[in-house]
Structure formats: C-alpha cells, structure tokens
Amino acid sequence: MPVPMIIDCDPGHDDALAIMLAAADPAVDLLAVTTVAGNQTLEKTTLNALRVCTLAGITDVPVAAGCDRPLVQPLAVADDVHGVTGLDGPRFPEPTVDAVPEHAVDLIQRILQDHPEPVTLVPTAPLTNIALLLTRYPGSAARIREIVLMGGSTGRGNRTPAAEFNIYTDPEAADIVFRSGVPVTMCGLNVTHQALATPEVLARFEGLGTELGDTCAGLLAYFAAAYRRLWGMPHPPLHDPVAVARVIDRSIVGCADANVTVELHGRYTRGATVVDLHRYLDRPVNARVAVTLDADRFWDRMIAAVTVLGSRTAGPAGPEPA
Ligand code: BDR
Ligand code: CA
User: Fold this and answer.
1) Are 146 and 183 a contacting pair, CB within 8 Å?
2) In angstroms, what is the span from residue 189 Cα to ligand 1's centroid?
3) What is the pLDDT of residues 63-79, one digit of tens each?
C-alpha cells in the first residue's frame, strides 16, 4: 500500500524534485503540498510549488500556503543559493493550478483527522508549519505516522559553520518538532551530501527527451553553479528528495537512533543539531538519524519519477530559446 504523505516545502530547486518524486513514485500517495517561507518568501515558494505542479502535471494534489515567517526571528531567505525567484534557472510556465484558500496548518490538520490511516509528514523546509500544527492542534501528533525531515547535520552546517539552513532559519520550530514525541527521522547534510548531481546524472535527465527532464537538468545546472561558487563543491547535493526516498524505501537511506537537540542559545552555534550518535549524554533517543545513502538506487528512483511525469505531460522538448 502506498504511504499517505504530505510534503511541506519551500521550493527551492531540490524541493521541486522532492515534489516530483513524491507525486510519481508508486510507493507514495501524495495528499498535499504545503508551503512555508524559507528559501524565499512565502509568496514566491507558493508560486513555485504551483509552477512545479503545473509543469509536472500534478493537478490532483492540493497546494496550501502556510507561515510567512519563522516563529521568533525574522526571515532570512537563501537567495544566494536559489536566486531571486527561489527557482532561478530554467523557465517555468505560469501556473494553471491554484492554491486552496486554507492555511497549510489547517489543511494538514483536516487531512490528518479525515484520513483513515496515520499520515507521514515530509518537511523539506524550515519547520514553522509543523511546529504550529503540533502546538495549535496537540491531538494531531497521534494522527502522524512519522515526520521524515530534511534538515540538520551530524557534522557541520551550511548556513553557519554549525547550522544547516532549514534548522537555522527557525530553530524554535525545530526544537518543538524534535521534542514532540512524534517519531522523527532526520535526513541531514551528512547524508544529503551523498546525493550528488554529477554530470552523468544531468545527462540522464536530459536523455529523457522531455520538457520536464530538461527542466530538471536546468535546475540542477543552476544548483551546480551555486554550489561551485559558494562552497567550491564540484557537484551539488540534492537534499530534499532524500527524505522522500527514505519513506519510499527504507533500505535506500540507512539510519541510526540518537538523541538530537537543537541548539537555541549558542553564541556561534544557534540552529545546530547536536546529534549524540555515540551516547555521550544521558539523554533519551528521540530521532532516527540518516547516515547512509544508496546513491545509485536513489537516482534510479528519482529518474523513474521524472520519466513517469514527463511522459504523462508533454511532448518532446522544444528548441533552445535564442
Ligand atoms: C536545505 O536548505 C534549502 O536551501 C534546501 O532546499 C534544503 O531544504 C539544505 O540545507
Ligand atoms: Ca527545501
């Protein structure tokens, strides 16, 4: 049976591919796409989610906008990584699908209440919406099968030396999620940096011969340039789909149990995930922490999803614009 899932995202180049993977993989029943401020403003991340759904022919999944800023601190977007639109690079069509007129948190709560089975939440963005859900609707926790999130790191960060972007952007929200008692799996930088979009991967997307395949290659090419410029990495990591892949097939993403604490006060370490893999501290396990990735099977699944969506939607890619 496919796993009922809601993606909470801030597209975002890698979020875009996470939506596609969740929408097309037969192991997932995608119930909603919700958006939050993060990589860009809420207005832009919501527009981007609608653009992605339009291009990929995802027309039967509700999209709802959520929180437009972190719980406590002001929003600081990642335009250095994702550009002024949040999805710079390839051209996207104007959306032909609309967001539903309901706050993301209310939509998630309604789905959790109505769905016959507990639902898996996959946040690939700052955890503001999820923290608000858990505090505004305390009963929602019992209806969540698990939260499998992209964020944090067992090692160093990518927004500060210590903190990863999604956690750093809203540390108070992340703290609420990790302390909620809901089963949490953390797919952090240590594992997403194993999902590298090499030139061979880009060639596989281009080789699909569809507009969607070309758009994915274009997104990854833009991401590659940003990662070379900002971090000197030869190939960019495709963070967010790794969390979806963990839900699709647990053997693609291996995990270890650990206590994870979000640092809220550190002078230089605010937003860091302190991951106690070796049980130095006498604190209970509150998370599964992703540590290994079967990169070949990850990319096979990702390409298969884009193949399915691309063949459903458009004809062959058009000529390059002049
Ligand atoms: C995370 O930050 C965002 O920029 C990406 O979309 C991903 O969710 C990686 O640190
Ligand atoms: Ca993201």
Assistant:
1) yes
2) 9
3) 999 999 999 999 999 99
Strand spans (E) along the chain: 3-9, 28-35, 63-65, 119-123, 144-150, 184-187, 253-262, 273-276, 287-293
> What's the 196 CA to ligand 2 centre distance in angstroms?
16
| 239 labelled catalytic | yes
Q: What pTM did the predictor assign?
A: 0.96
Domain extent for 233: 3-312
Q: Which are the contacts of 164, defined by CB distance < 8 A and separation ≥ 6?
A: 151, 152, 153, 157, 158, 188, 189, 271, 273
Residue 195 resides in a domain: yes
**Is the CB of 81 within 6 Å of ligand 1?**
yes
The model's pLDDT over 271-321, given as tens digits with 9 standing for 90+, comes to 999 999 999 999 999 999 999 999 999 999 999 999 999 998 865 454 554
CA distances from 288 to 146, 166, 239 (A): 11, 18, 17
**Contact (CB, 8 A) for 168 and 271:** yes
Residues lining ion ligand 2 (Cβ < 5 A) are 10, 12, 15, 124-125, 240
The verdict on the CB of residue 165 being under 6 Å from ligand 1 is: yes
Q: Is 44 in the pocket of ligand 1 (CB under 6 A)?
A: no
Q: How many domains does the chain have?
A: 1
The enclosing H or E element of 174 equals helix 171-178
Distance 116 CA to ligand 1 centre (A): 32
The reply to whether 318 falls in a domain is no
Please report, for the domain that includes residue 23, its CATH number. 3.90.245.10
